[in-house]
Design brief:
Layout: H1 3-21, H2 27-30, H3 37-43, E1 60-66, H4 75-78, H5 86-102, E2 104-110, H6 116-126, E3 133-137, H7 138-141, H8 168-174, H9 190-194, E4 197-202, H10 203-210, H11 214-221, H12 227-234, E5 253-257, H13 261-268, E6 275-277, E7 283-285, H14 290-304, E8 309-311, H15 317-329, E9 333-339, E10 353-356, E11 370-371, E12 377-380, H16 388-417, H17 425-436, E13 438-439, H18 442-445, H19 456-462, H20 468-491
Parallel strand pairs: 1-2, 1-3, 5-8, 5-9, 11-13
Antiparallel strand pairs: 3-12, 4-9, 4-10, 6-7
Helix pairs in contact: 1-3, 1-17, 5-16
């Protein structure tokens, strides 16, 4: 987002929180609503790329291996021409700007989700220099972290992950150890923004049942948007429209869910941690904290004891993107749990809606979160990268120019074209706040390498259980052994 917009929104949110929460210095009153005033100060000063203006590379070819995860994602990094689509054209112009500034030629080599692992392994082992840089889905790229295929970027030239165009906290959580940095993400691709989780609420449904929809924003800014409040606002809304004695898609609902993806966001955004870190930054499994246990029981209730919840089958993106969003758009559902990209499916919705974070477990949880789905694009360099200086310069400049152009374009599309049906200052400030809450949990990110320990919430919801202790007992030995192997192999990497 443009620095001036970000600054204004953060200041607005600060003012709103003070006015709605009373004493802003009282942690109990401001839980989940902290705003980093240092960020505001920083964004009032013009920021510059980490690449000096005199750095150029004499027309060198920069080859990017790109793996889009969903149909249409191609334009979000590798737009080949201007088409009239605002985001496509901004990405295209962003890429041209980087090529002109650095005197490089960017070439995109496409691969698929099913092929990327073998493609990268085979190419690196053959040292064929097919690509200089990798951009692909998180859930796939992390599987190769111990194969010795990635370059450690901890001392990468030009790149400072504290810069606002890099997702600093996210990068810290997706990497392991204090002396390794294999994965980067942030404004280098709009895919990062699109996969940030958020919750939509239908203003017509809210107003018909509870009055002024602005009260939802107050709940959030006062730190009171919790699992219990979700129940309170939805369970009495249920109407068995078809009179068949069970909750189904034909009824009046509080919310509709699928398993897996939404399970991830509801549980991890509650405030839990599957892993902690030791002094060396290495992960330690810790899935049975009091909060984890209680939140898992609460997640079970959200899915299975609230009559206003319909669990849709099958668990597919088509069902979520089409059936559940349509139900919400027809004013037959109060809340829609999704992501920023979910707004794409609400373009024809007539009623107004607002956008807020997912709920915390309870008011003792310090902050809201905005889990980024593991389809999100990560960037990495192969160990065979022929020119680290050039490739890091291109990465930095792509991210910086994305921060200046493609990210604001996405916000303009989302905010002004869709979200900004609600033009209040609070609504705008909360959307920016959700962006700044973008997060991943290390145990979730590396679940595939630890006997699915970071997916226990999925297994339990599939089994219609809320007992995480019993699930952990089944996999603890194998999960801890798998993590030990992961850390041991990781520590041996150069």
């Amino acid at each position: 987002m443009h620095k001036s917009i970000r600054s204004v929104l953060l200041i607005l949110l600060s003012a709103l929180l003070v006015s709605s929460c009373g004493n802003a210095g009282d942690p109990a009153e401001t839980a989940g609503t902290e705003v980093n005033t240092e960020t505001v100060a920083e964004t009032e000063t013009e920021v510059t790329s980490g690449v000096p203006a005199d750095v150029t590379f004499d027309g060198a070819l920069h080859k990017i291996l790109y793996c889009p995860t969903q149909t249409g994602d191609e334009i979000l990094f590798a737009a080949e021409e201007e088409t009239g689509d605002v985001l496509n054209d901004e990405v295209y112009r962003r890429n041209l700007t980087v090529m002109d500034k650095l005197a490089v030629e960017i070439q995109f080599n496409m691969t698929t989700v099913s092929d990327i692992l073998n493609f990268v392994r085979n190419s690196v082992q053959a040292a064929d220099n097919t690509f200089d840089m990798i951009t692909g889905p998180q859930y796939q790229l992390v599987k190769m972290i111990n194969d010795g295929l990635y370059l450690n970027l901890i001392d990468a030239p030009y790149i400072d992950t504290a810069s606002p165009w890099w997702a600093g906290e996210y990068i810290e959580n997706i990497n392991i150890g204090n002396d390794r940095l294999y994965f980067l993400t942030g404004d280098i691709t709009p895919l990062f923004l699109r996969w940030i989780s958020c919750c939509y609420f239908n203003k017509t449904v809210y107003e018909n049942n509870y009055g002024d929809p602005a009260a939802m924003y107050d709940l959030v800014t006062e730190g009171q948007w919790t699992y219990d409040k979700l129940f309170e606002l939805t369970e009495t809304l249920y109407v068995d429209n078809n009179m068949n004695g069970k909750t189904d898609p034909e009824d009046m609902l509080g919310y509709g869910l699928i398993k897996s993806a939404l399970t991830d966001s509801l549980y991890i955004n509650s405030g839990i941690h599957y892993m902690t870190r030791d002094a060396d930054g290495m992960p330690v499994l810790d899935p049975l904290s009091e909060l984890n246990v209680s939140a898992m029981e609460g997640l079970y209730d959200i899915y299975y004891t609230n009559p206003a919840c319909c669990v849709y089958e099958p668990t597919t993106w088509d069902v979520f993107n089409n059936d559940i969003t349509a139900k919400f758009a027809q004013d037959e559902m109060l809340f829609l749990f999704g992501y920023f990209f979910t707004s794409d499916f609400l373009r024809d919705m007539e009623s107004d809606y607002g956008v807020i974070p997912y709920p915390k477990f309870d008011e003792t949880v310090e902050s809201y979160r905005a889990l980024v789905h593991n389809d999100v694009a990560l960037c990495a360099l192969p160990v065979t990268c022929p020119d680290v200086d050039r490739v890091c310069a291109v990465m930095e400049e792509l991210a910086f120019q994305g921060y200046k152009s493609t990210s604001p374009a996405y916000y303009d599309i989302v905010l002004k074209g869709k979200y900004m049906r609600d033009s209040t200052d609070t609504a705008a400030a909360l959307i920016d706040h959700i962006h700044d809450l973008a997060y991943t949990e290390t145990g979730y990110a590396y679940a595939s390498m630890t006997e699915s320990a970071g997916y226990m919430h999925r297994s339990l919801i599939d089994a219609k259980s809320g007992n995480i202790a019993s699930q952990w007992a089944k996999i603890q030995t194998k999960a801890e052994s798998a993590l030990d192997t992961l850390i041991e192999s990781y520590s041996e990497l150069e």
